[in-house]
Amino acid sequence: xxxxxxxxxxxxxxxxxxxxxxxxxxxxxxxxxxxxxxxxxxxxxxxxxxxxxxxxxxxxxxxxxxxxxxxxxxxxxxxxxxxxxxxxxxxxxxxxxxxxxxxxxxxxxxx
Length: 111
Fold this sequence. Notes:
By secondary structure, the protein is mainly α.
């Protein structure tokens, strides 16, 4: 969290807010290590983070942001193409390739 997230707050207020949140986490989950707390917080916020990445892929502020977010989503779901095991001709990578190829052929025929 930074002053950009809360422009009406001073840095001291942001620091106090973060400290209070950390104290609350320790009070509610006193037996957790810092790593366990971090993992729990990540898991609790996973759906929101996934939605944010997909939103960036679709509506990112620049083409570079859209591309990077889109590549992350595809690689996360389908694996990196160069590292993927051999896929059957009717697998998800083949389906994606065929869609892209079809769109490219149609676009090329129109241009």
